[in-house]
Amino acid sequence: MQSQTQLPVNPEPNIEKTSTQEERGISPFRLAFRRFLKNKAAVVSVFVLFLIILSCILAPLLTDHDPIQYDLTKIEQGPSSEHPLGTDSSGRDNFSRLLYGGRISIIIGFSAMLFTLVIGVTLGAIAGYYGGKVDNIIMRITDVFMILPFLVLVLVIVAILEKVTVGIFVTVIALTSWPSLTRIVRGTFLSLREREFVLGAKAIGCSDFRIIFRHFIPNAIGPIVVNATLMVASYIVAESGLSFLGFGVPQPTPTWGNMLSEALNIRIMQYHPEAWIPPGLMILLTVLCINFIGDGLRDAFDPKSNKR
Amino acid sequence: MTKYIIRRLLVFFPMLFALTIIVFTLLKLAPGDPYSQMMDPQIDASVFEEQRKARGLDDPIPVQYFRWLTDAIQGDFGDSFRYKGRTVAELIWDRIPNTLYLGVFSVFITLIVAIPIGIYSARNPYSPLDYAATGFGFFGLAVPNFFFGLAVIYIFAIKLGWFPSQGSISKPGLEGFELLKARLHHLVLPGLTLGLASTASYMRYMRSEVLSVLGSDYIRTARAKGLTERTVLYKHTLRNALIPIITLLGFEIGVLLGGAVITEGVFKYPGIGTLFLESIGNRDYPVIMAITLMLGFFTLLGNLIADILYAIVDPRIRYD
What we know:
The structure holds two protein chains of two kinds.
Chain A: H1 12-23, H2 28-38, H3 40-57, H4 59-62, H5 94-130, H6 132-145, H7 150-160, H8 166-193, H9 196-203, H10 208-219, H11 221-245, H12 256-260, H13 266-271, H14 273-301
Helix pairs in contact in A: 2-14, 3-5, 3-14, 5-6, 5-8, 5-11, 6-8, 7-8, 8-11, 11-14
Chain B: H1 2-29, H2 45-55, H3 61-73, H4 88-123, H5 128-142, H6 145-159, H7 176-214, H8 217-224, H9 229-267, H10 272-282, H11 285-313
């Protein structure tokens, strides 16, 4: 609004120019990493998430109790020095279930993410690189998959399967949720297809496989990494929601969702908040950290997207 | 634009067709049929065979599909496995009003909370309330709705006793104003829980939309003409900033129906979501598939409405 900004003599652009020249020698990954480190919320989140994962890995050192061993003489006990968070309705130690449960919840989140990544990136790459008919077919399949809300589809499949294990659960999640990633990868690839360096690579005789892996995926790594990160959070929520409702990982395997389902018993909810609030807070904290890291990565890979 | 709407409708029907095929496939994949539940050693197995033949369960799959589809279009989804003598359609119709109330209530709360706060945040960026709203946004998007539901039951139903923790009415036989009051009273906690994530995301949308509109040239022109800040805000800014929100409302139908499943489960609220969960627990496949078909249909319809609304409210966009 002020006319001063219109003046031709402005010292700022010069400073910017020298700084970009200085950064030219650094790889884009280093640059992204530097920008990521400047985001305080994201860095703190990495630290907190690391602590959560570490305490789940070190569960055997932090507690002597077996998370699965029930003891019907000690059901629904309050907090004590032996059981810091009391015991559940089958007399299992809640603190030990919290730590071991975190392992299962986080493992499910990460392995479902890796599985989805394989399906989603492969199909997205094929659709975006080849275009045309193949693209059309793959996109129509994603449309069909996206008709039903993810949770509803998983619930129906769980209803059809007689028995659910962690492995089956991860597979079901991955097989129902790849379409959104496929669309993102396809969109990025379609825009890369028209660039000169691709033409150059083709001209010197690179194979399709090499172009996809050496030229396309590194250029699309930003959206892929950001979405993969956010996927872990949504899978942890999906797992705990389904386990909470009794349709996820079956008891007695501890997961945060299974622990929360104890609160469906109004007596436990009312008199033993120490039994169900900690797993809920752990889910919330983990998801919050992952979301902050995802936002941080987005800004780091694509500084233009930073709106706030 | 008429062309665009017709093209959009031409996409809608094949998708609907695909949905019916998915649901029918899932139905066929499900183990058992109406007769496997009635197995009785005293009745000869051949009787069941005849019954199965009479019902056409041994017909070729495409024949079965078209029979199922013709019935489904007329609202006939067969009988429930679990509740003998009741049709699936009856069970669903009983529950629809409750889910409708919950959905409308939750959208209402979402809009009256998210829009004013979003506008305030955009007009006073980096103010304490803006920071509080941003913090709430992060929280609202991260907290799983079942945990939030349990927490509000614990605080507002058990500790403070302000609202009931479950159900949709306190006792049968209420009428008129009393009934309305009881319903609203039971809707508060589930409605807040269901609307939390949407409230958080609408607030963020509203903030960034208003911020970007306020920075545009026509707002500067409006101010330069000497219009009052009120006119600038309500007539020029909001009209443009609300465009994405209106279209989001179409997509909201699918989000609400999916979220209602868990929220209704937490509050044991007798709607479609609880019926769905009960049916999954009972392996009552006809009910499961009918609800799945319904949820898919409304999601598709919501997307269609969103796309058409987008074309109507924003004439700047050209579809060729």
